[in-house]
Amino acid sequence: xxxxxxxxxxxxxxxxxxxxxxxxxxxxxxxxxxxxxxxxxxxxxxxxxxxxxxxxxxxxxxxxxxxxxxxxxxxxxxxxxxxxxxxxxxxxxxxxxxxxxxxxxxxxxxxxxxxxx
Length: 117
Prior knowledge:
With 117 residues, this protein is mainly alpha-helical.
Protein backbone atom coordinates (compact mmCIF):
# COMPACT_ATOMS: atom_id res chain seq x y z
CA UNK A 1 0.00 0.00 0.00
CA UNK A 2 1.15 3.48 -0.76
CA UNK A 3 1.25 6.13 1.98
CA UNK A 4 -1.75 7.90 0.38
CA UNK A 5 -3.77 4.64 0.40
CA UNK A 6 -2.85 4.01 4.03
CA UNK A 7 -3.88 7.54 5.00
CA UNK A 8 -7.15 7.11 3.06
CA UNK A 9 -7.82 3.75 4.78
CA UNK A 10 -6.95 5.26 8.17
CA UNK A 11 -9.36 8.15 7.59
CA UNK A 12 -12.09 5.68 6.54
CA UNK A 13 -11.42 3.56 9.63
CA UNK A 14 -11.56 6.65 11.88
CA UNK A 15 -14.81 7.73 10.22
CA UNK A 16 -16.29 4.25 10.67
CA UNK A 17 -15.10 4.15 14.31
CA UNK A 18 -16.73 7.53 14.96
CA UNK A 19 -19.99 6.34 13.33
CA UNK A 20 -19.93 3.14 15.41
CA UNK A 21 -19.23 5.12 18.60
CA UNK A 22 -22.13 7.48 17.85
CA UNK A 23 -24.39 4.51 17.15
CA UNK A 24 -23.31 2.89 20.42
CA UNK A 25 -24.11 6.06 22.37
CA UNK A 26 -27.53 6.42 20.68
CA UNK A 27 -28.30 2.76 21.36
CA UNK A 28 -27.25 3.08 25.00
CA UNK A 29 -29.40 6.21 25.41
CA UNK A 30 -32.35 4.42 23.79
CA UNK A 31 -31.90 1.41 26.09
CA UNK A 32 -31.77 3.72 29.12
CA UNK A 33 -34.99 5.39 27.96
CA UNK A 34 -36.67 2.01 27.43
CA UNK A 35 -35.53 0.89 30.88
CA UNK A 36 -36.93 4.07 32.49
CA UNK A 37 -40.24 3.81 30.59
CA UNK A 38 -40.56 0.14 31.51
CA UNK A 39 -39.90 0.92 35.16
CA UNK A 40 -42.50 3.71 35.07
CA UNK A 41 -45.01 1.40 33.33
CA UNK A 42 -44.45 -1.26 36.00
CA UNK A 43 -44.92 1.29 38.76
CA UNK A 44 -48.13 2.54 37.14
CA UNK A 45 -49.42 -1.01 36.62
CA UNK A 46 -48.70 -1.82 40.27
CA UNK A 47 -50.41 1.37 41.40
CA UNK A 48 -53.44 0.70 39.17
CA UNK A 49 -53.67 -2.90 40.38
CA UNK A 50 -53.58 -1.80 44.00
CA UNK A 51 -56.18 0.91 43.41
CA UNK A 52 -58.46 -1.55 41.60
CA UNK A 53 -57.97 -4.16 44.32
CA UNK A 54 -58.78 -1.64 47.04
CA UNK A 55 -61.86 -0.45 45.14
CA UNK A 56 -63.07 -4.04 44.76
CA UNK A 57 -62.29 -4.82 48.37
CA UNK A 58 -64.23 -1.78 49.56
CA UNK A 59 -67.27 -2.86 47.57
CA UNK A 60 -67.03 -6.31 49.18
CA UNK A 61 -66.73 -4.68 52.60
CA UNK A 62 -69.73 -2.44 51.95
CA UNK A 63 -71.77 -5.35 50.65
CA UNK A 64 -70.73 -7.49 53.57
CA UNK A 65 -71.79 -4.82 56.03
CA UNK A 66 -75.20 -4.46 54.40
CA UNK A 67 -75.81 -8.16 53.90
CA UNK A 68 -74.36 -9.93 56.89
CA UNK A 69 -72.47 -8.17 59.60
CA UNK A 70 -75.18 -5.85 60.87
CA UNK A 71 -77.78 -8.62 60.99
CA UNK A 72 -75.99 -10.82 63.51
CA UNK A 73 -74.33 -10.60 66.84
CA UNK A 74 -71.53 -13.14 66.80
CA UNK A 75 -70.63 -14.97 69.98
CA UNK A 76 -67.04 -15.65 69.00
CA UNK A 77 -64.45 -14.33 66.61
CA UNK A 78 -64.36 -17.74 64.92
CA UNK A 79 -68.12 -17.61 64.33
CA UNK A 80 -67.73 -14.16 62.73
CA UNK A 81 -64.79 -15.36 60.63
CA UNK A 82 -66.77 -18.40 59.43
CA UNK A 83 -69.76 -16.22 58.52
CA UNK A 84 -67.59 -13.75 56.60
CA UNK A 85 -65.85 -16.60 54.77
CA UNK A 86 -69.21 -18.16 53.89
CA UNK A 87 -70.52 -14.84 52.60
CA UNK A 88 -67.49 -14.16 50.43
CA UNK A 89 -67.02 -17.68 49.08
CA UNK A 90 -70.64 -18.71 48.67
CA UNK A 91 -72.52 -15.53 47.87
CA UNK A 92 -70.18 -12.76 46.84
CA UNK A 93 -67.80 -14.71 44.64
CA UNK A 94 -70.30 -17.16 43.13
CA UNK A 95 -73.84 -15.88 43.18
CA UNK A 96 -73.60 -12.09 43.23
CA UNK A 97 -73.92 -10.38 39.88
CA UNK A 98 -70.66 -8.78 38.78
CA UNK A 99 -70.61 -5.68 36.62
CA UNK A 100 -67.47 -6.72 34.75
CA UNK A 101 -69.22 -9.97 33.74
CA UNK A 102 -72.15 -8.18 32.17
CA UNK A 103 -74.19 -8.07 35.40
CA UNK A 104 -74.45 -11.82 35.71
CA UNK A 105 -73.12 -14.13 38.39
CA UNK A 106 -69.84 -15.96 37.91
CA UNK A 107 -71.77 -19.23 37.85
CA UNK A 108 -74.04 -17.96 35.04
CA UNK A 109 -70.98 -16.59 33.23
CA UNK A 110 -69.22 -19.96 33.44
CA UNK A 111 -72.36 -21.68 32.14
CA UNK A 112 -72.46 -19.28 29.17
CA UNK A 113 -68.79 -19.90 28.46
CA UNK A 114 -69.33 -23.66 28.61
CA UNK A 115 -72.16 -23.42 26.07
CA UNK A 116 -70.20 -21.26 23.63
CA UNK A 117 -66.71 -22.36 24.56
